[in-house]
Structure formats: structure tokens, C-alpha cells
Amino acid sequence: MEYKFRTLNADEIDCRIATISQKGLSLLLYKDARVDQNILDETVGCMNWMRHHSRDNANCVVSIWDNEKKQWIEKEDTGTESFTEKEKGLASDSFKRACFNWGIGRELYSAPFIWISSEDANIKQGGNGKFQCFDKFVVEQILYDEKRNIVALSIKNATQKKRVFLMDVTGVLKDIQRDWQTDKFIISVVINEKISQEMIDKIKDCKLSIILKRFRKKRSLDANGLLWHCLGEIAKSMNPPVDKWDVYLDMLKSYGKFTYICVKPNMVEAMKKQWRECEVVGDIDINGKEAVQMLCYFGSSTYDTKEFSVLLDGVISEMAEMGLETPASQDIQRALEQWEKMHEKVV
After folding, report:
1. Which domains does the chain have, with CATH numbers?
2. Beta-bridge partner residues of 190
3. Closest Cα to residue 4, out of 44, 60, 62, 47?
4. CB-CB contact of 86 with 94 (8 Å)
5. Fewest 10 Å CB contacts: which of 67, 99, 253, 309?
6. Backbone angles phi, psi at 12, to 5 degrees
7. Cβ neighbours of residue 285 under 8 Å, at least 6 residues apart?
8. Phi (first) and psi of residue 114, to 5 degrees
9. What pLDDT digit, counting tens, does each position of 54-76 carry?
């Protein structure tokens, strides 16, 4: 027996702040445990599934009764603690992850990079120096293709009552007719993305918000190529335009990996030639001998996948803040996967 769990509705998806700075914030889409419970109840029946935990709630097993095989089918995963109510949060997280294994909410992994500018969010700096935002963000609309990938998404700042993010579908305008009785236009559009029948049924005969604009084709690039494409777009948009190498060095300072090195005064210039980017911090005394402390930044070619991801996310957030078109989430994910494979080969 095979169960097909439906995709999540807009009101079943929550938005969580992933990163935040003075310039803006990025959001992640997630579900809570009640959504999993509701979907399990409506799909398999409340008497046909169960859960149990082990390792002090770190692991959760979700079991579903297979009436054809006459046995319970189990899927298991582990979770992480939350900042509040650690034990309860750990149990809830492991349960949600186990439900991901069953396919519930797995479509959220196809979400795009969601950047909200500081103009669209009330960002303040707290007493500890960290930036905070207490605005509530909600998913207005979401559409999936036949493979359950997200193809359209709009997010609203409910606190400020305005739309702050839009990811739309692509297509070709085929025909425009005018209804002379109602004086309204009837527009025929062929959509490239294969929107699922489930989604079509949800929006049929509903009032829609429609935006038509010329499509701009995006290039498919490898990890390093994607990074330099983004750097180039930032460089061209500067007034006056700057060299993308200068942008790269600035990004290394903001999002890159660095170390402190102490050298002899006569070795400062040699260090500047050796490192991608470095700067003098100041003179120091080491065991009675004069030295110069330098802040040195590693080039991105030395980064592992996590370090490269931090750098790329930082560059993309800068693009979003400048109003530039950011790469598609699929291109970002493909680039990181390619970078990870390349790094594994090097190791």
C-alpha cells in the first residue's frame, strides 16, 4: 500500500528568520508538528499511524500501518534541541524530521533564497549589538509543479501589511481578447512549469494577483562561475562601476575566512603578495621583539562547502539589498553540490 501525502497549503507554512543584518534578513520556510499530525490523520487515518521516541527524544520513529502487508512500516530520524523547552523541542523536531522521510513537507527543500530588504522589515539593533526583527512574515500563495517543486511563492509582512517577496512562474502570452459586454480583457497564457492539478483546483475561479513582465534567461554556472557572476553584477551596478576583483576582496572581508598572523616588520610587503587580501592590524611586542600583526583572508578556492556557502549567501544577500536579480535556488543548490564534490576529491 502506498500513501501519497499532499503538498502543504500556504497557511500551513511558517516563516523563520535565518540570518539578519542592518541591510535585511533571509527567511526559511518550515512546518510545525501539528501540520504533520493533521496530514497523517487525513491521509492514513488517526488509528493507522503512531510515533515513539528513543535516545531521550533525540530520535523519532513514525510508523504507518500497511494493510496489504499486515505490518507497521517505520521511518526514523533525529532532531535538535530548541532554545526554549529543550526536551519538548527535541521531540518535536525529531518527529518533524521523521515525517519529512515520509514525504510530508519535503517540497519546502525546493524553496528559493528569500531575502527581505530592511526597507520591508523593522530591523533594530539590540543592547547586545545584534540585529533583531519581530515582524511576522506569512506565506500568501504557493504553487508546486508535478514533481512537488515550488514554482511560485509570495510572502507578506503581516505586521506591515505588505507583500515583501515574490517568485513567479514563466510562460508565453498567446492571445488577448476583449469582452465587449464587460469591457474586460481575456488573456491566454501558456505556463512553462507543470503546475499540479491539485494546485489548479485550489486557484480555479479565485481572485488572483497577476504580474506580466518580460522573461530574462538565467545562465547555468558552476560554483565558482556563479560566485563570479554575482560579483560581476554587483561591480557593474556600482556608481561608478568598479572592478569585480575589488568587490571580491570586500566580500572576503565581510563573509570570508581569515586568520591573524604576526610577522617581522620587513616581511609585511611579502605577506601582502602572498595572501589574497590582508591588512595591518598594528605593531605588537613578542618576547621583547618588535612584530606586526596582520589580518589575512583566505581565497575562496581553499573553502570547504560550508565556508563557501556562507560566502555565496553573503554575496547574494548583497545583490538582493541592491535590488539585483539573484540566482535561482536550484542554481545555488547545484553550485554547492558541485563545490562539495570538488572539495571531496581534493581531500
Report:
1. 10-165 (no CATH), 223-346 (1.10.3790)
2. 172
3. 44
4. no
5. 67
6. -100, 0
7. 291
8. -110, 110
9. 888 889 999 999 999 999 999 99
Grid coordinates representing 297 are: 583572508
To the nearest 10°, report the CA torsion of 189, 195, 199, 200: 40
Q: Are 191 and 199 in contact (CB under 8 A)?
A: no
* Element of type H or E holding 29: strand 24-30
User: The C-alpha cell of 112 is what?
Assistant: 528559493
- What CA–CA distance (Å, rounded) separates 162 from 121? 10
Signed CA dihedral, 123, 124, 125, 127: sign only: negative
Residue type, 60: C
- In terms of phi and psi (left: phi > 0; alpha: psi -120 to 50; beta: otherwise), the region of 311 is alpha
Q: List the beta strands (DSSP E) in 222-276.
A: 258-263
The C-alpha angle 108, 7, 165, rounded to 5 degrees, equals 50
Alpha-carbon gap, residue 207 to 97, rounded angstroms: 35
Nearby residues of 237 by Cβ (< 8 Å), 6 or more positions away: 322, 324
Number of H helices, E strands in the chain: 8, 16
Evaluate if pTM is beyond 0.70.
no
- Residue ranges with strand state E in 92-183: 114-117, 123-125, 131-133, 137-144, 150-157, 162-167, 171-179
Cβ atoms of 173 and 212 within 8 Å: the answer is yes
